[in-house]
Write a structure and sequence with these properties.
The chain is α+β, with helices and mostly antiparallel strands. 31% of the residues lie in helices and 33% in strands. A five-stranded antiparallel β-sheet has the order 2-3-1-4-5.
Length: 124
């Protein structure tokens, strides 16, 4: 049985100047906000831009929620999501991801790991 799944992705983005990084952050934010209402099972989309200014922080975070694991899996290959990934491919330096069951009760009955962590460097 699968309950809601939270999908969190953080990126470090390219940009040699502060203006280029600001533009890259805005492009990522706009692209993912544009997915609202287009993908079945995607119930929440939130995009945050880092304000800490520390050099080890990621630039952008995506917090999204899906009705269940099947919806998250469908999202991964959905044409609109693939379009956004392609549009943003040249902006990414690094990508970090965590997927976990959002419902604590569902986590207790999951029977396996409730989260997954991966790191992907642009171009891999």
């Amino acid at each position: 049985m699968s309950g809601p799944v939270r999908h969190i992705v953080m990126w470090r983005l390219r940009g040699d100047t502060p203006q280029e990084r600001i533009a890259a952050r805005a492009k990522v934010k706009s692209a993912f906000e544009g997915l609202r209402g287009l993908i079945d099972g995607l119930t929440h989309v939130e995009i945050g831009v880092d304000v800490s200014g520390v050099d080890y922080a990621c630039d952008v975070v995506l917090v999204s929620e899906f009705t269940d694991r099947a919806a998250l899996e469908a999202y991964a290959t959905h044409p609109e999501h693939l379009r956004v990934r392609q549009e943003l491919a040249d902006l990414r330096i690094a990508r970090f991801q965590v997927d976990y069951l959002a419902d604590e009760e569902a986590m207790a009955f999951a029977g396996g790991p409730s989260h997954r962590r991966s790191e992907v460097v642009a171009g891999e």
